[in-house]
Write a structure and sequence with these properties.
By secondary structure, the chain is α/β, with parallel strands linked by helices. Helix content is 36%, strand content 29%. It has one domain (6-104): Glutaredoxin (3-Layer(aba) Sandwich). The protein is built from four helices and five strands. Helix 2 links the parallel strand 2 (21-27) and strand 3 (52-58). The longest helix has 17 residues, at 32-48.
Length: 105
């Protein structure tokens, strides 16, 4: 994973999404579609730097956070603004769709 993506944990999650716009990828290392989503996010991160943060949360390491947001399948991407859920996507998402959601937030 590149340094452009922020790694969140169960302990750092709330603080990580508390301010500004944050797109969180709920993923797991064994998930094939999640591995397809990561390069898309790595490509997007430099384009939104300064406007939004793109982060990843390993659901195997933080199942309580995934449960809190009813994440039932991965990858699930949730867009937060100042800690509030703005939009949720399930499955691999193209960069253009995610960019549009970030721009709208």
């Amino acid at each position: 994973m590149s340094g452009a993506l922020k790694e969140l944990t169960g302990e750092s999650f709330d603080q990580g999404v508390a301010s500004g716009v944050t797109l969180v990828d709920f993923w797991a290392p064994w998930c094939g579609p999640c591995r397809m989503q990561t390069p898309i996010l790595e490509q997007l991160a430099p384009q939104v730097a300064g406007r939004a943060t793109i982060a990843k949360l390993n659901v195997d390491e933080a199942p309580e956070v995934a449960a809190r947001f009813n994440v039932r399948s991965i990858p699930t991407l949730i867009l937060f603004k100042d800690g509030a859920v703005m939009q949720q996507f399930v499955g691999v998402q193209p960069a253009a769709k995610l960019m549009a959601a970030i721009d709208a937030a």
